Amino acid sequence: MSEEIPLFRKYPKLRNIPWVSVIKSPTPIHKMEEICKELNHKEIWVKRDDLTDDIYGGNKPRKYEFVFADIMKKNKKKILTQGGIGTNHGLATTVHAKKFGLETHLFLVKQKLSQHVRENLLCHHYFGARLNLMKSNFRRKLAIKTRLFFDKNAYFVTTGASSPLGTLGFVNAAFELKEQIDAKLIPEPDKLFVAVGSLATCAGLVLGLELAEVKTQVIGIGVTDPTWSSKKAILDLAVKALELMRTEDSSIPDVSDVIGERLIVDHGYFGGQYGVPTEEAIEAIEIAKKDELKLEYVYTGKTLSGLIDYIRKNKLQKDEIVVFWNSKSSADLTSVTKEVNYQDLPRTFHKFFNGSVK
Ligand SMILES: Cc1ncc(COP(=O)(O)O)c(C=O)c1O
Fold first, then answer.
1. Distance 301 CA to ligand 1 centre (A)
2. E strand residue ranges, the chain
3. What domains sit in the chain, N to C, each tagged with a CATH number?
């Protein structure tokens, strides 16, 4: 695990912001040779954030390097966080928080059932999350507020850890990419495709690439309702992260007016419903297997389907260098799911294991 991160190398005064090592970095970056052949496009690369950790990688742990450090600085012991019952964020939080002696309490609402959702639920339990099923978002908010009021050891982590602090994890990721470009591990990319859910991944990359003076344009593929994951919302979060950085180091340029120029947000691959597969995402998952990448249809499959479509429809120039940011953990948790009996979960969750699902 790295002890000095690219962001602090660039701006040493930011070392005043608490940070803790969570991930294996830098994550590898390589060309997807088979996909290049398949799509007849010379330069399609992948940033392997699926490998940020051996047990649970993906994009989330990058955010925790800043969020967990803040929790520990404040001497809190319990994380309260939220999501759908199959939340990747909730699972990633549970797995990583445990290493720091932090307890995770998940406040979950129903979502469309799938095998993946069931597996995540079993993993939440296996890794020690305290599970609370909420009847509505209103009740979820109320329950969390009440717990925060009465339990002084509790700390709230927002959906997807997409706070300004969490966003810094991806500003750092952009500087990591810049160091890989400088080390000639990849030519400077023209375009970068990334999934947009709770925003911080995309927001941090956009801000970081601007500050790192890398030319790359970001194409954020929206996988949730466009009203949540709008370009404006992403930029607002990026500006908050920038403000946070500038309070520690006022010499950091105020790029808030220009960052929007490098960002395109496209909801054309969303398919109208979060977590529901599109035919194009299923095709993209198959294509990705040719380069031994393990994608899923909620985030990364839809994102790669956008990249593929841009190439097929000539929305990218033939010689453009493209990066696909692989944000989903590829660690295999099937042995874990085999060990858990759903009946060991709180009773209110048993109904999610009735009947068959895809
Ligand atoms: C696998 C995966 N990729 C991408 C995203 C999107 O990242 P963010 O929530 O930071 O927008 C998420 C979470 O929402 C995710 O679980």
1. 12
2. 29-31, 44-47, 78-84, 103-109, 130-133, 154-156, 191-196, 217-222, 263-266, 322-325
3. 6-59+167-325 (3.40.50.1100), 77-152 (3.40.50.1100)
Q: What is the pLDDT of residues 74-125, one digit of tens each?
A: 999 999 999 999 999 999 999 999 999 999 999 999 998 999 999 999 999 9
Atom 1 of ligand 1, nearest CA residue: 328
Residue 2 has pLDDT above 90, yes or no: no
Q: Which of 32, 158, 45, 140 is nearest to 85 (CA)?
A: 140
End-to-end CA distance of the chain: 37
pLDDT digits (tens, 9 = 90+) for 165-199: 999 999 999 999 999 999 999 999 999 999 999 99
Name 9's bridge partners. none
Ligand 1 center from residue 157 Cα (angstroms): 15
Give, for 143, the enclosing helix (H) or strand (E): helix 137-150
How do residues 40-51 score in pLDDT, each as one tens digit? 999 999 999 999
